[in-house]
Amino acid sequence: MNTDNLIANVIEGIENVKGIDINILDLRKIDNIACKYFIVCTGNSNTQVNAITSSVKKCVSKSMAEKPWHIEGLENCKWVLMDYVDVVVHIFNEETREYYNIEDLWAEATSTLVKTKY
Fold first, then answer.
1. pLDDT at 118 over 90
2. What's the rounded Cα separation, in Å, for the pair 55 and 50?
3. Is the domain defined by 3-113 classed in CATH 3.30.460.10?
4. Where are the domains of the chain?
5. CB 3.0–4.6 Å: which of 13, 67, 71, 99 could bond 55 by disulfide?
6. What is the rounded average pLDDT of the residues 85-108?
7. Considering Cα of 46, then 111, then 106, then 61, what sign does the dihedral take?
8. What is the pLDDT of residue 117?
9. Count of CB atoms within 10 A of residue 12's CB?
10. How far is residue 32's CA from residue 72's CA, in Å, rounded to a whole number?
11. SS3 for 77?
């Protein structure tokens, strides 16, 4: 699987339903990490978190014929994790993202904020 293509499709899926505050965390220089990248974004509501999840899944499947290895958090849609092995997507509602502050937790990662089209 081409990681750069996967990241581009994940970003497209997020942007298609107006997910905000998209941040790519490059974890490759950190020892003993399970994946290469985290992509973190926010939805304005639990409904939007669910919509972002569906959109990412659709974009990646359509373009690359890939499905996530695992998805967690669809029960309440406060924090959905989509595991594509090399790339793990974290889709938060605003309150949950602030509470867990995942970017600070992984502060040693290289962070790239995505400028959205809207």
1. no
2. 9
3. yes
4. 3-113
5. 13
6. 96
7. positive
8. 76
9. 17
10. 22
11. coil
